Amino acid sequence: MVPNSFRGGKLGNQFVSIFLMAPLAALSDVDLVRSYLRDIGRVPLLSHEQEITLGRQVQDLMVLEQL
Fold first, then answer.
1. Is-contact 54 46, C-beta < 8 A?
2. Beta-carbon neighbour count of residue 8 at 10 Å?
């Protein structure tokens, strides 16, 4: 099954060609990538404020480690 985002157009045809010609081992790699992308899509992203706060905390901890 080809994902909707790869159907049609030049990119879609290239993907289908590569997918159909790929050895069996490479197909499992495709499945791993698809699984990874599906899984990371389930994790909520940080808000802008959360990212700034965590970045500052990391920088503060790095300074403490150097002492």
1. yes
2. 10
